[in-house]
Amino acid sequence: MTNPPAPKGRPADVVVGADGQPGYTSVEICAGAGGQALGLEQARFRHLALVEYDKWCCETLRARRKWRDRVREIDLHEWTARKFKDKVDLFAGGVPCP
User: Per-residue pLDDT tens for 26-40?
Assistant: First the structure.
């Protein structure tokens, strides 16, 4: 996939994610307290979902205001990624979950 020319005022090295927006996208399962999510964010990924079952980990994830609406507090066996079909560049996981 090639990226279209950069609009005026935006650097040419900005990539376009699978959802058509600037920057790569990710969905992370077994997100834990967010260590991997933070690293991905620093690498300029945009999180579409951070899936975690542990209540305390989810509270920690939600403490980052930017992620608050991306946290999915649900058992992985009950969660589905259908909503993100054709929108995700990276499917990441902090597995194995305990």
Answer: 999 999 999 999 999
- pTM tops 0.70: yes
Over residues 31-50, mean pLDDT: 95
Of the listed 30, 57, 58, 97, which one is catalytic?
97
User: How far, in Å, CA of 72 to CA of 55, rounded?
Assistant: 10
CA-CA distance, 48 to 79, in Å (whole number)? 14
Number of CB atoms found within 10 A of residue 48's CB: 20
Specify the amino acid at residue 20: G
Q: Does the annotation mark 97 as catalytic?
A: yes
Measured between alpha carbons, how far is residue 73 from residues 31, 76, 95 in Å? 10, 9, 16
Three-point CA angle 60, 37, 19, nearest 5°: 120
